[in-house]
Amino acid sequence: MAESMEEVWLAQAKSGDQEAFGCLVRAYEKRVFALTRRLCVDPSDAEEAAQDAFLAVWQGLPAFRGEARFSTWLYRLTVNACTDILRRRQRRSGRDEPLDRAEALPDRAPSPQEAAERKELRSAIEAGLRQLPEEYRTALVLREIQQLSYEEIAQATGAKSGTIKSRISRGRGLLRKFLQEHGNLSDFPASNRIEAGKGGRG
Amino acid sequence: MTPCEKYWEALNAFVDGECSPEEENRLRAHLLECEACREALADLTAMRDGFPSWEEEAVPEGFADGILQTVAGTPQQQPKKAKKRGRSAAWASLAACLGLMVLLGTLFPGSRGASTANNAAPASGAAVTASQAAESQSGEGENDRAPEGSDAYSGQAWEDQQTLLAKRDILAQADADLCWTLTEDEELNLLSGRTAEITAEGRVYTLTMAELTELQARAAEADLALDLPGSGPASTAAASGNSLDPADPSPGEKSQGESAYRVLVRPAEEP
């Protein structure tokens, strides 16, 4: 999407232009769903969280001053929407502690269609993500799926950049352990893997 | 093999392109010698490649149209440019905060809030001034519950002194400036759309002065008291208040985002 086009939509939507806002929704809906599907403990909450996030965007647009990028602001509202839903669920269920992800995991196995479409590692990563503590998962999803920098993740979550660096490395440590335990990181010889490592985005 | 703990964070920053040049040089030198870290780097790279992209995400059919239908019946929130009533109510609160802080500082010199207060003026005089400021700021007949003078603070609020002191410690631990006790619904209503930093003491929101003022006004409209349990509506405690200068006549005219205030929200007990 051209940056200038987004700016035009933003300016129009800020003035109440619903058609322009619709363009923004369509431009970002996949990115928002990529976030809500992974941040909501119950994936069936993903659509509600996405709706809440976009509604918050609409309501808050006139006050959006462009100090952060629009996408960063949108992700921030999305993370908030997911957190709010999680808190409502916890309140309703009367549980103070976050849901036990390991316990809930069997209910959220990928559908047969999803399983067919995704490669084994990808499925394992999705399963592993669901077991991560919320803060680690949020940071990792924003990094890996939304491709945000540490600084942008900090803006989107309200945490400090150093905290994000720590959350990402800890989250990846847990995810790596999960993948190793499920045999997803030992498919090819170490020598090849070293080569793969050199190709990393450093 | 287990990678070196010392280099784990750098390995992650490396695959993310977030290493400083020094960090990257150290890591590269280490990688030449450490097989476990080379293996970890390979795993991290494989993991990165294994993540899905948002572009592959499926969106329910008609999602955007549904949003637009909702939006059609939902007015946008126009930024409030310091409604007179809201601003005065907020400043009454802030002035009262300063008064409380000064009084606490007098009793407990050497505390975080005390040094500023003691440097500013004789404590009792400053407290009266702050309370009078609260009175004059809120004296528009719209906020019946505003404190009527310094007696309000020598009475009810003093009875909650221990609570206040405990709160101040909590504020210090959370590195926050203000503390509100809200039910979940109130918090959602007031602060929905904002991100909080979760601390052991509660959720900490970072707000600009203008945002703080607006929230105070909205709280007043909703008949919500942003205060301490058992004290008056304008007795929000402040642990550090040297930037909340009640003498500044035009807080709403400051450039937005100039100052950030950290507000600790603690959960109220459900009725």
Task: Name the CATH homologous superfamily of the largest domain in chain A.
Answer: RNA polymerase sigma factor, region 2, helix turn helix motif
Please compute the radius of gyration of chain B using only Cα atoms. Answer: 25 Å
Helix fraction of chain A by DSSP (H/I, runs of at least 4): over 70%
Q: So what's the overall shape of chain A?
A: globular
pLDDT under 50 segments of chain A (min length 5)?
95-108, 187-202
Structural class call of chain B reads alpha+beta
Number of strands of chain A: 0
Name of the CATH first level of the largest domain in chain A: Mainly Alpha
Please state the average pLDDT score of chain A.
80
Mean pLDDT of chain B: 65
Tally of domains of chain A: 2
Number of strands of chain B: 4
Low-confidence stretches of chain B: 82-88, 107-160, 228-257
Strand content of chain A: under 5%
As a percent range, the share of helical residues of chain B equals 40-55%
Number of helices, where a helix is a run of at least 4 consecutive DSSP H or I residues of chain A: 11
Question: Largest interface: which pair?
Answer: A-B, 75 and 62 residues
- Give the neighbour order of strands across the main sheet of chain B: 1-4-3-2
Major sheet of chain A: none
What would a concise description of this structure say?
With 202 residues, chain A is mostly helical. Chain A has helices at residues 3-14, 18-39, 46-60, 70-93, 101-104, 112-117, 120-131, 134-144, 150-157, 161-181, 190-198. Chain A folds into two domains: 1-99, Rna Polymerase Sigma Factor, Chain: A, CATH 1.10.1740.10; 105-186, Orthogonal Bundle (Arc Repressor Mutant, subunit A), CATH 1.10.10.10.
What does this protein look like?
The complex is a heterodimer of chains A (202) and B (271). Chain A has 202 residues and is mostly helical. Chain A has two domains: 1-99, Rna Polymerase Sigma Factor, Chain: A (Orthogonal Bundle), CATH 1.10.1740.10; 105-186, Winged helix-like DNA-binding domain superfamily/Winged helix DNA-binding domain (Arc Repressor Mutant, subunit A). In chain A, 71% of the residues lie in helices and 0% in strands. Chain A has eleven helices and no strands. Chain A has helices spanning 3-14, 18-39, 46-60, 70-93, 101-104, 112-117, 120-131, 134-144, 150-157, 161-181, 190-198. The radius of gyration of chain A is 18 Å and the shape is globular. The two termini of chain A are 26 Å apart. Chain B is of the alpha+beta class and 271 residues long. Chain B has two domains: 5-49, no CATH class; 84-267, no CATH class. Chain B contains eleven helices and four strands, in the order αααααααααβαββαβ. Chain B has helices at 5-15, 21-33, 35-50, 63-72, 84-107, 114-120, 123-138, 151-159, 161-174, 184-191, 209-221; strands at 178-182, 196-199, 202-208, 260-267. Chain B has a four-stranded mixed sheet. In chain B, strand 2 and strand 3 form a beta hairpin. In chain B, helix 1 packs parallel to helix 3 (35-50) and helix 5 (84-107) packs across helix 6. The longest helix of chain B has 24 residues, at 84-107. Chain B is flat, with a radius of gyration of 25 Å. Mean pLDDT of chain B is 65; it is low at 82-88, 107-160 and 228-257.
